[in-house]
Amino acid sequence: MPNLRLLRVLVHVFAGVLTCAFLFPFSSDARRSHFVRRWSIGLLHLCRVEVRFIDQSGGQLADHALIVANHVSWMDIFVINSWQACHFVAKSDIRSWPIAGWLSAQAGTIFLARGKQREVRRIYEGLVHQLRENKRIAFFPEGTTGAQGNLLPFHANLFEAAIEAQVPILPFAVRYVDAQGNLHPAADFIGEMTFAESMKLILKSGGMRAELIQLPSIPTDGAHRREVAQRAREVVANGLGQVLVD
């Protein structure tokens, strides 16, 4: 049965390639966002991942804000995109991934090469411009995936873009649970685990629920990026029901 589901996932990926190749060049931004959201919902459905959106923000809107979230799995991007399509900031090496890198680029992913200051500055200026243009930008400030129950420190650099663009931070907490509400171990994508190994675990897991928790926004007026990053981490930890010890 998992092999059949894997085949269906591959067919879905191929359909995404065709959409990007033949429909995206002639589509508006709104239409592309619709395609990305619909495709993300379809992928999660095939993986038997049910998304539950939980609003703990008091009804605040996601427009004109920099979106941040904790990072558990490659699925996080699609969980967020199933709610509203975003342009994600990702490591530049993802661009070289077969198929997935090309699909990510077509979906508007912003690739960031660490250590290349000129390119980092160019990307940063682009983020500020897009935020001022009300583009929906998202990134994972942990910088890598971490096991559920362990929230890594937040890197502060990209928070500066929200401060300069004069937009708030809209934080989300993401977690994956089983039928009893316990953290699902098959969601963790850490260490030397490959994408194929992760997909196999998810398809054999029997299904899980992804909880996407929207949290209160964080103002950036007059703030320092490190203060904003630390506050965002505290808010996300609270949303996950975790107590920070560092």
Coarse morphology = globular
Helix content: 40-55%
* Chain-averaged pLDDT: 90
Strand count: 7
**Beta-strand content bin:** 15-25%
Report low-confidence residues grouped into runs of 5 or more.
none
Domain Phospholipid/glycerol acyltransferase: 65-177
Protein name: 1-acyl-sn-glycerol-3-phosphate acyltransferase
Pathway: Lipid metabolism
GO molecular function, one term: 1-acylglycerol-3-phosphate O-acyltransferase activity
Written overview of the protein:
- Keywords: Acyltransferase, Lipid biosynthesis, Lipid metabolism, Membrane, Transferase, Transmembrane, Transmembrane helix.
- The protein is an alpha/beta fold.
- It has helices spanning 2-22, 29-46, 75-83, 100-106, 117-132, 159-165, 195-204, 225-240; strands spanning 49-55, 66-69, 87-91, 110-112, 137-139, 169-177, 208-214.
- It has a single domain, classed as 3-Layer(aba) Sandwich (Cobalt-precorrin-4 Transmethylase, domain 1).
- It is built from eight helices and seven strands; from the N terminus they run ααββαβαβαβαβαβα.
- Helix 4 links the parallel strand 3 and strand 4.
- Helix 1 (2-22) runs antiparallel to helix 2 (29-46).
